[in-house]
Design goal:
alpha/beta, 9-stranded mixed beta sheet, 3-stranded antiparallel beta sheet, 17 strands, 18 helices, 21% strand
Amino acid sequence: MIYQKRLKSHHDAYGSVKKQFQTETDKAVYVRNVLGGEAQKKRALYLHVPFCTKTCTFCPFHKPDELKRREYDDYLIREMDRLAGFKFMEAPIDAVYFGGGTPTALTPGQMERVLDRLHKSFTIRKDAEVSVETSITELSDDMTQVLLSGGVNRLSVGIQTFDDRGRKILGRRGSGDAAAERLLKTKRAGFRNLNLDLIYNWPGETLDDLREDLRRIRELELAGISFYSLMLHENTPIRKTITQEELVKMGRVEWDKEQFDLIMQELGEAGYQPFELTKLIRDGIDRYDYVRVRHSGGDCIALGHGAGGNLSGYHYYNTFFAPPLAKDLPISAMGVVEGDDYFVIDEFINDLQRTKVDLKAFGEKLRVDVQGLISDVLERLEKEGLIRTSGTGMELTRDGIFWGNNVIDEILRTVFSGAGLNS
């Protein structure tokens, strides 16, 4: 086995590797010029809702509400109004993404107000993918209708598992049967692009439990799934209650791989194909435009407490207490101006996460011989059965997708070291 420990998240691997591309450019001057000009790139809009009505036992991110949830629609609308007058905001939006938290922790009435103002404040392309994350229990008939009427055409639903025992362990509400019925009802209401999150390798899960989850997914004929091996974070409820025996079994790479292979095999037979390291899609229904735009050099306008964005190179993070760059610049001062190579590396990583990349093309963009720098690594990875190479291209195999974060981390560190960069 080429790696002793599997990196389950890109944050464990190359999460900080891009920090070195930050510049000392005057942020206020830079952003003022950006907002005063016309947008030149594809654009996404990200709205963050930092609330959940129920905290999952495995979640390390939940904090006490710093804003009043029942006034949060007003907060988002005020942010839209502050941006509306800038020339940069006039260009059409290619993708919209509501993330969190759980956006549907807002009431249907609040969501209706936010969606209405969104369409009045920005020009959303007719073919734009408008996506909302939701839990199954908040996907009521009223909420479903509000989302459909408001132009939402993609849902990402946090199911995690249909197994009732597993749902209790993970802190999910309601039964697996009720969750499946609600998904089917939502699909019949008009949501063709319906996706769910699946967690595997939870405490006590068996292969039969996982097979039953996969059976339900196939039966529902969903557009796609994002699937994750459970990550155990310190000071979370699940980490405090898990037994040592369960911990040892869950930590075995062979067991993790057996479940991964079952997912890939059974859903592959049902027509699901890899889209990213942790995402499978069927029939090309789910385009995941928000990620595609954001990680191919596009702009991302961020709205809401906890939202991160990019305005033509200014990467920023919103919080309700962060000061603006200036009185006439209602953009968070918590940000940096990135150099051009940042976006090349970001797209390079995204292509690797999408399981295939043209090494020569990115070498030309970075002005280094990427293929030559990592030739020894490529040869070893191919012998290990983790990649396939063809000409200037490289593609992850099924085993390579399992070890994807490890592979990408090693490739990046080799490139950075060989090019004389610090990582």
